Amino acid sequence: MRTVKFTSWQDDTFFIGFLNEYPDYQTQGTSKEELIENLKDLLIDIESDQVPYIRKVEELLVA
């Protein structure tokens, strides 16, 4: 089991969010629990190459 960070907010009746490593790909749910399930499904799709042209946030160490 692993931990994946995500960002979420409520917009009227929907909970909207994205995986912090993949901020370009948002999903939503009618409850926080549904949003979390949709984020898990999104992660599976991304990691199994179902989503083309993935852009990922990474860190650059500059001395």
Describe the protein.
- The chain has 63 residues and is an alpha+beta fold.
- It has one domain: 2-Layer Sandwich (Double Stranded RNA Binding Domain).
- The protein is built from 1 helix and 3 strands, in the order E-E-E-H.
- The chain has a 3-stranded antiparallel β-sheet.
- Strand 1 and strand 2 (14-19) form a beta hairpin.
- The longest helix is centred in the middle third of the chain and has 16 residues, at 32-47.
- It is globular, with a radius of gyration of 13 Å.
List keywords for this structure.
32% strand, globular, alpha+beta, 1 helix, Double Stranded RNA Binding Domain, 63 residues
Count of DSSP helices? 1
Elements, N to C (H/E): EEEH
Instruction: Kindly provide the radius of gyration, computed on alpha-carbon positions and rounded to a whole number of angstroms.
Output: 13 Å
Oligomer: single chain
E-strand count: 3
- Helicity range of the residues? 25-40%
Distance between the termini: 34 Å
Q: Which regions contain 5 or more consecutive residues with pLDDT less than 50?
A: none
CATH topology annotation = Double Stranded RNA Binding Domain
How many domain units?
1
Cross-sheet strand order for the largest sheet: 1-2-3
From the helix content, strand content and strand pairing, which structural class follows?
Answer: alpha+beta
Average pLDDT reading: 96
Beta-strand residue fraction = 25-35%
Largest sheet: 3 strands, antiparallel
InterPro entries: TTHA1013/TTHA0281-like
Organism: Candidatus Methylobacter oryzae
Protein name: Type II toxin-antitoxin system HicB family antitoxin
